[in-house]
Amino acid sequence: MGSQRVFLTGASGCIGQYIAEALMTQTDCELYLLVRDPKRLTINPQSRGGVHVIAGDLQEIAQYAELLKTINCAILTAAAWGGGTTPHDINVSKTLQLVQLLNPAVCDRIIYFSTASLLDQNGQILREAAHFGTDYIRSKYDVLKQLQRLEIADRLTVLFPTLV
Fold it and tell me: Which parts of the chain are beta strand (E)?
């Protein structure tokens, strides 16, 4: 991957920490790790060059607009579950804003972590999740539908982890 630039949200979270570690140890990508609290990182970002820790929040994603235009791969694991933050604002509005700040001529891959709670036993999206799920589930349903309509949707890979 060499000169690939990867932007990872939620790098200190349940899934993000493992992705950050794998990217650091198994690639030579230039990494940009967005975390609210760098002290929660389980990796040592100084263990190799090309790792940039960005202490920030999706609430302020617009301030990273110039950087996001240069990103080749965005891995989106950050999510708001509730309790202090509105899941819809982070999980829908700010996630969509981040994706729209990516340059379609530069970004060739977006990996978005959703939730298996949206799926039925056959792996199909439950439309009921839009109406009967928790705020978190409804927000994940809403953003998934909107992401699939974007110009850059052909580069989108959606993962549905079952347990976080």
Answer: 5-9, 30-35, 51-55, 73-76, 109-113, 156-159
**Rounded-to-integer distance, Cα 39 and Cα 56, Å:** 12
What radius of gyration, in Å, describes the C-alpha atoms of the chain? 15
Q: What does the pLDDT average to over 111-134?
A: 90
Q: Kindly list the distances between the CA atom of residue 55 and the CA atoms of 22, 38, 58, 74, 136, in Å, as whole numbers in the listed order.
A: 20, 6, 10, 17, 24
User: For 51-83, what is each residue's pLDDT tens digit?
Assistant: 999 999 899 999 999 999 999 999 999 988 876
Its pTM stands at: 0.92
Residue 132's pLDDT band, with cuts at 50, 70 and 90, is: confident
User: What is the pLDDT, as a whole number, of residue 81?
Assistant: 81
Collect contacts of 66-70 with beta carbons under 8 A, ≥24 apart. Answer: 67/7, 67/32, 68/7, 68/98, 68/101, 68/102, 68/103, 69/101, 69/102, 69/103, 69/106, 70/5, 70/103, 70/106
Q: Buried (b) or exposed (e) across 44-80, using 16+ Cβ within 10 A?
A: ebeeeeebebbeebbeebeebeeebeebbbbbbbbbb
What is the rounded average pLDDT of the residues 132-157? Answer: 92
